[in-house]
């Protein structure tokens, strides 16, 4: 199968008179990464010849939204108040044009338990998980975990960039880590650990981008491996089977559509030994720094950072819902 948009691939060119405000920063734990993403987006748009302003926004500082000269707001915030739908709802209420997914889709994607339930309902493979309740009877929880898996991933339900994620080898350790996680981040989940290859698939305007396999020196692709460790490898063309590539790309598109995402996103998977792609989570505003995965995948297809950002803005200016389909290759 090949993945094709159901609308014409030609997009109108953007006039240089278009003014774009890049929103970044925010109040979440990923604030520093957001500032980097926003700076890279702003530079890319300036290089494309657009009139660009930037704003470090917070819930109590949204003055930029009152600037009537701005045509499009490019959202480069991650996590809390960036990907949870709050900012998107404010923009919707003000009838302002903005990049990326709408409030409901963002909220659904950021909530790992809710998105996992949506994946399962759509028959998309995803690791089994339970939401941790600190008030539950420990003996009962331990029994549940023994039936769930042998190893576990403990993670906050509404955090990104692997913030707060740990991998443990037994139920008691999972319970102890879940207590710490819930105390620090609020709602958390305990998920079955599935050994395999960490891969990610960017989605741009309904098309799956080249698959990237991630190899880190740590036990998994954690925050340090993402943003600090220079030894983390991001590899293309590590899957040789064309059928498996198409199947994985199709799974990414299915996740994208199931959550109601639009314009762009990134879907993270574990590819198990039996070549099943287990969906872990969707990122409605993935990193947009020079070393982030979506820009790397776009570059692999010949799109520069400027090209990538322009395509996202073009889709926003079309101001209509674009739907996508899977079609058999000829």
The mean pLDDT is 89
The end-to-end distance, rounded to whole angstroms, is 9 Å
Helix content: 25-40%
H and E order:
EEHEEHHHEHEEHEEEEHEHEEHHE
The share of residues in extended strands comes to: 15-25%
Number of domains: 3
What structural class should be given to the helix and strand makeup? alpha+beta
**Residue windows where pLDDT falls under 50 for at least 5 positions:** 1-12, 221-229, 320-330
Q: CATH topology of the largest domain, which one? A: D-amino Acid Aminotransferase, Chain A, domain 1
Oligomerization category of the chains in this entry: single chain
**Count of DSSP E strands?**
15
Computed CA radius of gyration, to the nearest angstrom? 20 Å
Major pleated sheet: 6 strands, antiparallel
Shape: globular
**Superfamily at the CATH H level of the largest domain?**
ATP-grasp fold, B domain
**Number of continuous helical runs:** 10
CATH class category label of the largest domain: Alpha Beta
For the record, the CATH architecture of the largest domain stands as: 2-Layer Sandwich
Task: Please sum up the structure shown.
This protein has ten helices and 15 strands.
